[in-house]
Amino acid sequence: MPAEQVVVTGALGYTGRYITRRLLARGAQVTTLVAHPDRPNPFGSRLRIAPFDFDRPDALRSTLAGATTLYNTYWVRFARGGTTFEQAVANTRRLIQAAEAAGVRRLVHISVSNASAAPHLPYFRGKAELEDAVRRSKLSYAIVRPTLIFGLGDILINNIAWLLRRFPLFAVPGDGRYRLQPIAAEDVAAIAVEAGDTAANVELDAAGPDTFTFDELVWLIAGAVSSRARLVHMPPALALAAASLIGLSVGDVMLTRDEVAGLMADTLVSAEPPRGQGRLGDWLRANAETLGREYASELRRHFPT
């Protein structure tokens, strides 16, 4: 029986890497679409690499030809230079159109929890627009909405640990009572691949078994890395300014105004029963020795010079 042929966007990145690992483990032939084909490839010859080619629909369609399923993790965390949320929405629409033209059977689209809950924030507004585009497409689809994803390769949890290891104070925007429901990257991959195996159109949240306030999350990470840093609650604008100063020192964008607003709006929790099983506390204990030892740069990862 011939191997299943699938396409994953961003297999050299974060969430896409976990999905790719699971698909390869079950014998699928995987092609990835990436923005930076020269990045290190942990999968070697088992993974075929192709550029996104958003401006070349024929080439994009050719790359997708023969695939039964497209797993789409493509998105941008924030606008920078010529990279905007509007461009990311337009690019994803082109990807969906190319998948339709190539005869792809199913699309598994990775969105975000509560995508429509914060239409005033470009990140969430763009995600909600693309969910509508997926629904209107000719493809069989699954929309998977993760909350906060943790795992090796994570940026947020790692950099919180990095700050806690190096500074006596940790700035918390607002009262720190807003909630998060972290999910393991392995669980997101399992949910996505399982969703790819079905035919019905489904929309589901991907959240873990534990819900924390932001303060509780920081305390949990601090305990794992043996930090004695003190949490200091600040007005969001002041906490953002502090993050911006540290970001300048490491040459990165550590936190954005929209991300602070999204966190404080409880967007990273789900009203659905948790589908993930991995617990953040267990993962922190297993990775405490290396977590936060080095800063994880968003700009170096996604905007290399």
Care to describe what's here?
The protein contains 11 helices and 13 strands. The chain is an alpha/beta fold and 305 residues long. Helix 1 packs across helix 6. The chain has 2 domains: 170 residues, 3-Layer(aba) Sandwich (Rossmann fold), CATH 3.40.50; 117 residues, UDP-galactose 4-epimerase, domain 1 (Alpha-Beta Complex). The longest helix has 18 residues. 40% of the residues lie in helices and 18% in strands. Strands 3-2-1-4-5-6-11 form a 7-stranded parallel sheet, sandwiched between helices. It starts with a strand and ends with a helix. The model has no long low-confidence stretch (mean pLDDT 96).
Q: What attributes characterize this protein structure?
A:
single chain, 305 residues, alpha/beta, Rossmann fold, UDP-galactose 4-epimerase, domain 1, seven-stranded parallel β-sheet, two-stranded parallel sheet, 18% strand
Draw up the topology in text.
Blueprint: E1 5-9, H1 15-25, E2 29-34, E3 47-51, H2 57-64, E4 69-72, H3 85-102, E5 106-110, H4 122-136, E6 140-146, E7 149-150, H5 156-166, E8 169-173, E9 179-180, E10 183-184, H6 185-196, E11 202-206, E12 212-213, H7 214-224, E13 230-234, H8 236-250, H9 257-264, H10 280-287, H11 298-302
Parallel strand pairs: 1-2, 1-4, 2-3, 4-5, 5-6, 6-11, 7-10, 8-13
Antiparallel strand pairs: 9-12
The helix count comes to: 11
Computed Rg: 19 Å
CATH class of the largest domain: Alpha Beta
Mean pLDDT: 96
- CATH topology of the largest domain: the name is Rossmann fold
Low-confidence stretches: none
State the end-to-end CA separation: 44 Å
The total tally of domains equals 2
Strand content: 15-25%
Helical fraction = 40-55%
H/E element order = EHEEHEHEHEEHEEEHEEHEHHHH
Would you identify the CATH H-level superfamily of the largest domain?
NAD(P)-binding Rossmann-like Domain
* Major β-sheet profile: 7 strands, parallel
Give, in spatial order, the strands making up the sheet with the most strands. 3-2-1-4-5-6-11
Q: What would you call the shape?
A: globular
